[in-house]
Design goal:
By secondary structure, the protein is of the alpha/beta class. The protein has a single domain, classed as HUPs (Rossmann fold, 3-Layer(aba) Sandwich), CATH 3.40.50.620. Helices cover about 30% and strands about 25% of the residues.
Length: about 260
């Protein structure tokens, strides 16, 4: 089975102070470290598991500058056979449509059976690159997949819906799936594995290598444009209730009744 996984390096904003950048259309993350997108960790693990089960090959793709190569090194460390990074000065600022177009061009004519992406990215949350890439490839797709089964040239996908519901769909191969967190347990990457991965080559492709020009990528090739970012409005300050426990309890009940929470 020939597999492809698409990954992204994103800022770790758990401890970062996010500030709207001067252009008003992006977020300045300061010195926040980069990390592999959480959803992509599960997509990568699922791809490696299927490679191990079928004895196939796995290629990892990423669109990003050199400092994002650590994501591809992780892919190589856990079992990817090949890593491909696509970059050009015209690529920053592009939306999901242009990203999907670049990834489609990078895939080329290689006959992959199954393509895997994370369900969404932690930095923009669009959740669009996977379905758009499937459209570019002309193959069926399923999103928010939390279980995969291979059945006679088809893949059976269980999709996560709202309120605990699920949906089962069958896709003819080749197909693309976007993976939800929790589908598996991503394996630990050892220091030794990372060191070995650093010695492996990463294929670097420019726009000319994939047959694209700057009119079809970046902001010029995007059909979606971010107009503005704004922080959420500040809420009311917390109210601290003081006094003995019985008095505080009465205050809480009174507040709940006032707000309609208790009849």
């Amino acid at each position: 089975m020939n597999l492809a996984v698409f990954v992204k390096q994103v800022p770790d904003t758990a401890e970062a102070d996010l500030v709207v950048a001067a252009d008003g259309r992006s977020v300045r993350t300061g010195d926040a470290p980069l990390q592999l997108n959480e959803w992509d960790r599960f997509a990568l693990e699922e791809a490696v598991l299927w490679k191990e089960r079928t004895g196939g090959a796995l290629t990892a793709f990423l669109v990003g500058p050199e400092e994002h190569e650590d994501a591809l090194r992780r892919c190589l460390a856990v079992g990817a056979d090949r890593a491909v990074r696509v970059w050009d000065p015209a690529l920053p600022g592009q939306g999901p449509c242009a990203v999907a177009r670049v990834l489609r061009a990078a895939v080329g004519d290689e006959p992959y059976d199954l393509f895997l992406c994370g369900a969404q990215a932690a930095d923009d949350g669009f959740g669009l690159v996977g379905p758009l890439l499937a459209g570019e490839l002309g193959i069926p797709s399923a999103t928010l997949v939390n279980r995969l089964e291979l059945q006679d040239g088809r893949v059976r996908c269980t999709r996560e819906l709202e309120a605990g519901w699920g949906e089962v769909v069958d896709l003819d191969l080749p197909a693309l799936v976007t993976i939800q967190t929790g589908i598996n347990e991503p394996r630990y990457v050892s220091i030794l594995g990372i060191r070995k991965a650093r010695k492996k080559p990463i294929d670097l492709l420019g726009l000319g290598d994939v047959g694209l020009d700057d009119r079809r990528v970046g902001e010029a090739g995007s059909r979606l444009r971010v107009e503005a970012f704004a922080p959420p409005p500040a809420g009311r300050e917390a109210e601290f209730l003081e006094g003995p426990p019985d008095a505080v309890a009465r205050q809480v009940v009174d507040l709940l009744r006032e707000k309609g929470g208790v009849l």
